[in-house]
């Protein structure tokens, strides 16, 4: 086997079948704005055309435009559902030849490209190249209108659409529009009901990445590893998110204040504070929130429901994150490590909080005075002092408090929990 330390392939991938399409897309499915390009052009001519010629091929369904006829033909299959590339070993079919080639490698088990930093293996050299940027932090794709840069070209394309406001991909069923083809493909499955099936149980998923994560539960395989602290995960997106703990990067910026976040979902929740919207309200105690999932979680305070069960003991939790932390007690694993002092934690959230001891960062600012806090929960408690609000109420006796943790502690009086600390 060849040395894999520099990300070079360990073997040369073989051709994985002819992948010939069984049908040909008729040009009647696509509109052509100008004359068709001359057949038999060289690749260099096609590249020149992309820069110098207009995007003459246009989709009649959603307005998508491209300089290349074959790109339009592939795009039309999103609308028609056509999958002309058939696997000769199972009933799988794909829209593109590359999709079939990737699938065929699953039958052979061949993943010739290996990362020398963490052992991750990939079917495609391009996939390995993208993976290596997780370790190097390289972001070679630069926006020419601002200082944004990205690891992948598709992320840059998505970003550029924000400058233009262009959303070229549209659903023919309901008019939904998006900047990314993959988002439209996912959306279309809402209408078709198409799902990816697990070959080891009856689980199915709307997204392939979700199915890949599920399969890892059967194998116990965690392909993605952090080179800084050894954290491993079955999901590439989890590793990318984890790396932000070490880099301190917070790429999602608020355009109304100086707030920034490591996750887009955190920024979305923050933006609702500017709008003042809290549309979700608890019928028991009047608690309001901007996020529906927060209300669902809050309701368990009243019902006592703990739907997340440990399969190794009788522990149960109201939150999945609490169950995940508990499961690590069985394994003894603490995947998150501080590079400053060696502190290890079971949760990324705990490591993020810990890192502020070294940096002195207090990112949570009060908008009514000069108070700031290292933790969001501490700021929330402070803000209630300004409002005089006590949103958490006990349904048994009417006790009210400013903090959820205080209500949870109080509820143990009624439940007779012997672990109550006086």
What this model shows, in words?
With about 425 residues, this protein is an alpha+beta fold. The protein folds into two domains: about 25-210, Classic Zinc Finger (Double Stranded RNA Binding Domain); about 275-405, 2-Layer Sandwich (Double Stranded RNA Binding Domain), CATH 3.30.160.60. Helix content is about 40%, strand content about 15%. It has 14 helices and 27 strands. A three-stranded antiparallel beta sheet has the order 1-2-3. Strands 4-5 form a two-stranded antiparallel ribbon. A two-stranded antiparallel sheet has the order 6-7. The longest helix is centred in the N-terminal third of the chain and has 12 residues, at about 70-80. The model is unreliable at about 1-50 (pLDDT under 50). Its main location: nucleus. One of its GO terms (biological process) is regulation of transcription by RNA polymerase II. Keywords: DNA-binding, Metal-binding, Nucleus, Repeat, Zinc, Zinc-finger. This is Zinc finger protein 135-like. One of its GO terms (cellular component) is nucleus.
Average pLDDT for all residues: 77
CATH superfamily of the largest domain: Classic Zinc Finger
Q: Note the beta-strand portion.
A: 5-15%
**Low-confidence runs of at least 5 consecutive residues:** 1-52
**Could you say what the CATH architecture of the largest domain is?**
2-Layer Sandwich
Q: Share of helix among residues? A: 25-40%
Structural class: alpha+beta
Walk across the major sheet and give the strand order.
1-2-3
CATH topology of the largest domain: Double Stranded RNA Binding Domain
- Total domains: 2
| Count of DSSP strands | 27
**Cα-atom radius of gyration:** 26 Å
Q: What is the count of helical runs?
A: 14
CATH class of the largest domain: Alpha Beta
Overall spatial form: globular
End-to-end C-alpha gap: 63 Å
Query: What kind of sheet is the major sheet?
Result: 3 strands, antiparallel
